[in-house]
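Sat 14:20. Reprocessing the chain from the morning session after the first attempt stalled halfway. Input below, unchanged.
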Amino acid sequence: MDVTFSPSQAPPPPTDGGDNPILNAIIWAGEHFIGVFNEAGKQFAGLVTGILPTLIVLLTGMYALIAFIGEDRVTRAVQWSSRWWITRYTVMPVIAVLMLTNPMCYTFGRFLRERHKPAFYDSAVSFVHPVTTFFPYANAGELFVWLGVASGVTQLGQSTVPLAVRYFAVGIVVILIRGVVTELITSYLIRRAGKTELFREFDAEFSTAGGAAK
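Finished this time. C-alpha cells:
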C-alpha cells in the first residue's frame, strides 16, 4: 500500500535533511521502514490472488477424491504398498504425502516393521519438495523451494510444466534410492549393534498384531 497525501493535508516531510547527518539518518530510516511494509503488503496481496486459491481448490479436490474412493480403501492401498521394497519407497510415500500432507504423512510408518521405518521416513521426507510442483497444498509451508527453482524459467516467460514433470519424476527416483540405501544401512547397523534378535522380536510382534497387509 502506497502512502499518499491529498492537497488538504500537510506536505510530506523533505527527503533532504541538508547538512544534518542525524536528520538525514532519521529520514532514511523512516522511508525504508514504511517501504518494508509496502513490499510485504504487495507480496501478501500476490499470494492471496495467486497461489492461495489454487491451494484451497487442490486441497478440497483431494479430500473430495479421498471421500469418493473411501478412506479405508486408500489406507488398504498404503498397507498393500508396504509389502515390497519397490512400492514401499515409491507408491507408499507418494500416497502418504498426497493424502495426509507434511508432516502427518510420516504417521503411515505405523504400517511398517520397525526395521523399515527409518527408510520410509527418509523416503517420505525427500518427497515433500518435488510434490509441490503439482500438489502445492501437500507442503505449502515450503512452497518457496519450488518457486525458487522455477523462478528462472518464469522470468524467461516459458512454461514451468516441463520442469515440474522432470522434478516430480526425479523426485520419485531419488526417494526410491534413498529408501533402499537407508534400509540397507539400517540392517547393517542392527547387525553391528548386535540387535538382530531384538528386531526379530519386533517383527514377530508386528506379525502378531497384524500390522502388515495380508
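The radius of gyration is 26 Å.
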